[in-house]
């Protein structure tokens, strides 16, 4: 929450007076994980869902005085998705097995392709940019037939992982410190 949510909200709060005067624009980098169920990344998804709600609410509060574009990139080839992440001590570590467990069935887009699509969307004045655009079908499924969406994601994420022959270090949310599941 500190980085994904507050890292966007605090600068926005600071910049809002100037943005209102100048009729400025805000670009929010959320994620499809904010509205699509991402297995094994529920905390990340929750922080992105909080961003979506916050900036959607700002749209209502500021109407046309501040334009807001919310970008929801799909899974993109970045250092983070190659397993590079910060540990609790603040040191960089690489744990490729965790990312392999989440991403084994997803096509990845290059970071530069994603960035170009987002910039084009902002220049057009789009309210929302989802890249790649085919992720939009998941939004429609979630809204109209959430049971189908859940079944589909279970099938592509959980069942293959249970049948994997290779040794993959996978933790579910109940293995996270402080969370008790019954």
TrEMBL record:
<dbReference type="InterPro" id="IPR020904">
    <property type="entry name" value="Sc_DH/Rdtase_CS"/>
</dbReference>
<dbReference type="InterPro" id="IPR002347">
    <property type="entry name" value="SDR_fam"/>
</dbReference>
<dbReference type="GO" id="GO:0005829">
    <property type="term" value="C:cytosol"/>
</dbReference>
<protein>
    <submittedName>
        <fullName>Uncharacterized protein</fullName>
    </submittedName>
</protein>
<dbReference type="Pfam" id="PF00106">
    <property type="entry name" value="adh_short"/>
</dbReference>
<dbReference type="GO" id="GO:0016020">
    <property type="term" value="C:membrane"/>
</dbReference>
<dbReference type="GO" id="GO:0016491">
    <property type="term" value="F:oxidoreductase activity"/>
</dbReference>
<comment type="similarity">
    <text>Belongs to the short-chain dehydrogenases/reductases (SDR) family.</text>
</comment>
<keyword id="KW-0560">Oxidoreductase</keyword>
<dbReference type="InterPro" id="IPR036291">
    <property type="entry name" value="NAD(P)-bd_dom_sf"/>
</dbReference>
């Amino acid at each position: 929450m500190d980085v994904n949510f507050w890292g966007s909200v605090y600068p926005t709060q600071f910049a809002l007076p100037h943005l209102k005067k100048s009729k400025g624009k805000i670009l929010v980098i959320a994620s499809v994980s904010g509205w699509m169920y991402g297995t094994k990344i529920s905390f990340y998804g929750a922080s992105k869902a909080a961003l979506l709600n916050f900036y959607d609410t700002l749209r209502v509060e500021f109407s046309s005085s501040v334009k807001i574009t919310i970008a929801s990139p799909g899974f993109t080839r970045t250092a983070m998705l190659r397993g590079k992440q910060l540990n609790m001590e603040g040191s960089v570590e690489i744990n490729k097995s965790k990312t392999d467990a989440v991403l084994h069935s997803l096509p990845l887009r290059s970071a530069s392709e994603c960035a170009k699509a987002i910039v084009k969307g902002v220049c057009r004045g789009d309210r929302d940019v989802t890249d790649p655009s085919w992720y939009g079908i998941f939004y429609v499924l979630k809204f109209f037939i959430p049971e189908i969406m859940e079944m589909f994601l279970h099938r592509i994420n959980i069942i293959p992982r249970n049948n994997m022959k290779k040794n993959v270090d996978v933790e579910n949310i109940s293995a996270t410190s402080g969370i008790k599941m019954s």
